[in-house]
UniProtKB/TrEMBL annotation:
InterPro entries documented for this protein: FAD-dep_OxRdtase, FAD/NAD-bd_sf
SUPFAM superfamilies listed in its UniProt record: FAD-linked reductases, C-terminal domain (SSF54373), Nucleotide-binding domain (SSF51971)
Protein name according to UniProt: FAD-dependent oxidoreductase
Pfam families given in the database record: DAO (PF01266)
Amino acid sequence: MKNVDYIIVGDGYAALFFAHQLIKNKKSFYLFSEGKRSASFVSAGIINPAVLKRFTTFWLAQEQINALKITLSEIEVYTHKNYLIEKPILRVFHDEKEKELWLKKSNEISFLSKDFLRVNSVKNPFECGLVNQSARLNVRDFFTDLINYLEQNDHLIKEKFNYNMINTEKSIYKDIQFKSIIFAEGMGVKDNPFFSDIPVNPNKGHHLEVRLSEKIEEDFTIKKKHFIFPLIDNTYYYGGTYDRDQIHHKIDDSAVEKLTNALSEFYPNDFDVINVKFGFRPTVKDRRPIIGNHSRYKNFYVFNGLGARGILNGNYFAINLYQHLETGEEIHPEVNLKRFQ
């Protein structure tokens, strides 16, 4: 029989940021990964403290930005790589009214720069606003390196977790005795008999990988309707969409058309669509994650509902969950599962 402090089920942002807390604090654990590409893995990796439709900010934005920078510097110690791409967001204004609203809001919100910019590579007749403290995560390397680290250090179990194999009374899974188990499965939670009733809903997001005939010279993450930024081999990410209705597991032609039309509106040259990807974000009606334990099995926890801010929410509340489990710190009431009970 193996004895560990924790089992983690899942391999997205919630799971990996919680795993980091365990690595940092020298806890024993296993993480179960099916090896499927989760919504986290195909995400843009945007780190954005502003809401770019209404030019506002959101709950705990500065605290989450600060915490993420600390965590990424901690992860760099053992992966030997910096995953923070400090290329700020430029928001292309649709019209003069948007520009005026941005300027007005910048008096209240420090994330909105008062200085406007004009770029040459895309159409921006009303100029662009820069989002202070915005950046991107190197998503591909972040997941690849952390999964490799877990495997090399005997923390990774590459198999589908079988709920029927849990001895709930003795806290044993197969031949593993655990103190606590964390289910961080994204939309996979709907197959989880312990937490299938939590109110998370799938929000489907598509993005394109495109090859541009003329590269974008400016070193920013640019957004008008969607984000565009460079990948590798002269390809670019463009996306993503939000769809709560079309939740089948295949590409939606309407989403691809929406993206290609939107890119054509502000990129003035030809481009080719190389690939289309999609994922399902686990979202909650009140736009807050869900963290808490099972009503009967007190050491069974769920960590879910990160929504479109998976990086910021995942890291910040992984810290809150770890502190709750190890020191008794309260789970923040706005994310506590008990708010639905």
